[in-house]
Amino acid sequence: MLSLRFAELVERRLGVETCKMYRETNARGWARCMEEFELRTKRDFDISHNDLNYSYYIILPGASDNHDHGIQSNFITLKTSDILEIFRPIVQQIIDLVTEQYNALEKKGKQPSSVILCGGFGDNVYLYESLKTHFEDTEDFAVLQPSNAWTAIARGAIIHCIEGEGLVRTRIARRHYGVVMRAVYNEEKHGESVNKVHDPNDGRWYVDNRIDWYVAKGQALPYADPILRDFYFTSENEFFEESILMVVCDSDEPPTDFKPTASTRMFCTITPDIRSIPREHWWEDMNEDNNRYMKLNYQVGMKFTGGTILWDVRVDGEIYGTAAADYE
C-alpha cells in the first residue's frame, strides 16, 4: 500500500496523462523509481529531525524537469511533509491492527507481551516510534525492532506455527507474481500487437512487454525449490547489459501485457553480471540473412523464504544475479 500511495503522489506531481505516458514509454525508469522508494525511502524515512522541509531525493530517470513540482535532473524531491502524507494512513492501519490483536488476546485471557517488527517496513523508525508512543501507557508490553528487521522472518526468528514449534512452510499469494519477457510473435494469437518488435540478431519478430506469471493470486508460494522458467538473450557479442523486471498484480485477472497501473506494477529488478558468464555458455547461431549472432540460454527462478521473495538469474545452475523483495 505504501508503494501505491507513493505512485499516486508521483502521478499527481507529473499529471495523470504525463505520468501514464512516462510509465508506458519508460517502464524501466519507472521501475527504478519504485525500487528506490521500496528499498531506501520506505526503510529510511524518519521524522525525528523535526524538520518538515527536510528533502528526500528519489530517482525518476528521463522525466522532464518541472521545478514547480520538484522534478529536476532525473530526480523527484519530496519533503518530509509529503512522505508523511503517504505513511500516516498506513501506519495508523498498523496501529489499529496491533491494537485489535492485543484486545482479542486479552478477551481470551491471554496477556500479550510484545509486538516484533519485521519485513522491509519493520526497519522504519517512524513506524517504530509511532507504535511505541501508542502503547507507552500499556504495562508489560514492548514494541521490539530487531536489527536487520527486514530479514528477521527469513532467519526464522518470527513465524511459528500456532501449535508446535515447526516453522510455517506455506504462504498463500495475495497477488500475482511474474516476469516481463518477450514472446515469439504469432499472428493468430497476437494480431497486430502494438508491442510487436523485430530482433535484428536472430531476425525473428516478438511481442515485447508480455508477462510470464509464475504464481497466481491464491496459489501457494514456492518455499524450498524455486520455480524456474527458461529464457534467452540474443546479442551481437557477449558484452551487454540487460535488466529483468519482476511485476505484481492485485487484480483477480492479471493482464498478459505489462502496462504500469495502480494494480499492476514493478516489484523488483535484476541486472545479471553478464560479463562474468564464461564464454562456453554462449553459442553462435545464424539468422536467415546468414548473419552470425550470440545466444545465451538462462533461467529466472523465484522462491519464497520467510518474509522475502527471492528472484535469481542462473545459467547452467550457476547464479549470476539476484533480487529480494518483501512479501506484502
Molecular structure report:
The protein has 328 residues and is an alpha+beta fold. It contains 6 helices and 15 strands. The protein has helices spanning 2-14, 16-25, 27-44, 80-107, 125-134, 187-190, and strands at residues 55-59, 71-72, 75-79, 114-116, 142-144, 176-184, 196-198, 205-215, 227-235, 244-249, 264-270, 283-286, 292-305, 308-315, 318-326. A 5-stranded antiparallel beta sheet has the order 7-8-6-10-11. The relative contact order is 0.12.
Strand neighbour order, sheet with most strands: 7-8-6-10-11
Instruction: Give a quick account of the main beta sheet: strands, pairing sense, barrel closure.
Output: 5 strands, antiparallel
Structural class: alpha+beta
Domain count: the total is 2
H-E string: HHHEEEHEHEEHEEEEEEEEE
Estimate what percentage of residues fall within beta strands. 25-35%
Compute the number of helices: 6
Question: Helical percent range?
Answer: 25-40%
As residue ranges, the low-confidence spans are: 150-168
In whole angstroms, the N-to-C terminal distance is 9 Å
InterPro entries: ATPase_NBD
Organism: Aureobasidium vineae
Protein name: Actin-like ATPase domain-containing protein
Can you give keywords for this protein?
single chain, 328 residues, alpha+beta, five-stranded antiparallel β-sheet, 30% strand, globular
Summarize the topology.
Blueprint: H1 2-14, H2 16-25, H3 27-44, E1 55-59, E2 71-72, E3 75-79, H4 80-107, E4 114-116, H5 125-134, E5 142-144, E6 176-184, H6 187-190, E7 196-198, E8 205-215, E9 227-235, E10 244-249, E11 264-270, E12 283-286, E13 292-305, E14 308-315, E15 318-326
Parallel strand pairs: 4-5
Antiparallel strand pairs: 1-3, 2-3, 6-8, 6-10, 7-8, 9-13, 10-11, 12-13, 13-14, 14-15
Helix pairs in contact: 1-2, 1-3, 1-4, 2-3
